[in-house]
Amino acid sequence: MEYGSMGTKIARFLDRADLTTDINGWINDTRYAIAVEALAAGREFAYLYTEATALTSAGSAVYALPDDYLGHLDLMCGVKKLAHVGAREFDDLKYHAYAGSATGVSIADGVFLPTTNAADLATTGEPDYYCDRGMEFELYPEPNGEYTLTIKYYAFPSAFSASDDEDYLMKFHPDAVVFGAVIRGAMFLDDQAKLAIFMPMYEKEMGKIVRKEKQKETTDMPIRMKTYKDYTLLEFKKKFRVV
């Protein structure tokens, strides 16, 4: 359903023809919210997938995520996929004490306490790991020069304004967008009766989206024949009756 037609339908449900600007905003807000909810539920909207590149610089380990960032899949350095680690594990890579190290303050024979200066402990070179830091990510090792980073991520849906605008969500799940926008309008108008009607309808449509996208992901999965590598030695012997 195109943007203009959707706005007309929402206005009719709200019994208001004087809220065109507000309705346009509610449509876009609903599209954003559905994308967030679907990804949070583990569904992957392929139409939101995009890529962005950036160049590292020597001595800089922290970089900003794209402005339209919603959630990401992979971070590449050249052709190498970087390992995504949690904050604690990432910090352990930078601040750690280990036997035989000459870094830090010696507290026992062969045991060193790390200093609190990150520059003393962090190594430099081509990055292998990264960690999320809010709307930024940090690389380790710290880049020692210029490397090409490619982030593969999901982007927020771009805002629509033209009457013939339409995206995947509006084409294949139009009722979810319509009902979600009506709910926002009902909240704005403090119309409890319409909220009671359209809230269950919106939740039902969201359930349809999750089920449909899950089915689509399952259908699109490639078929792979199992080999002996998929079994432990015990399982292999039992399955093929090998003594």
Account of the protein in words:
The chain has 243 residues and is α+β, with helices and mostly antiparallel strands. The protein has 2 domains: 3-47 and 159-220, no CATH class; 57-146, no CATH class. Helices cover 42% and strands 21% of the residues. The chain has 8 helices and 12 strands. The strands form 4 sheets. Strands 1-12-3-4 form a 4-stranded antiparallel beta sheet, with no helix packed on it. A 4-stranded mixed beta sheet has the order 2-10-9-5, with helices on one face. Strands 6-7 form a two-stranded antiparallel ribbon. A hairpin with a 2-residue loop joins strand 6 (105-108) and strand 7 (111-113). Helix 1 crosses helix 2 (20-40). The longest helix has 29 residues, at 192-220. Mean pLDDT is 82; it is low at 97-102 and 111-121.
Throw out a few tags for this protein.
243 residues; alpha+beta; four-stranded antiparallel sheet; four-stranded mixed sheet; 8 helices; 42% helix; extended
Give the gist of this structure.
By secondary structure, this protein is of the alpha+beta class.
* Largest beta-sheet characterization: 4 strands, antiparallel
**What is the number of independent domains?**
2
Calculate Rg over CA atoms: 26 Å
Helix/strand structural class:
alpha+beta
Give the count of helical stretches: 8
Name the beta content range.
15-25%
Number of separate strands: 12
- pLDDT averaged over residues: 82
Order of helices and strands: HHEEEEEHEEHEEEEEHHHH
Helix amount, in percent?
40-55%
Enumerate the strands of the largest sheet in spatial order, edge to edge or round the barrel. 1-12-3-4
Shape: extended
First-residue to last-residue Cα separation: 63 Å
Report low-confidence residues grouped into runs of 5 or more.
Answer: 97-102, 111-121
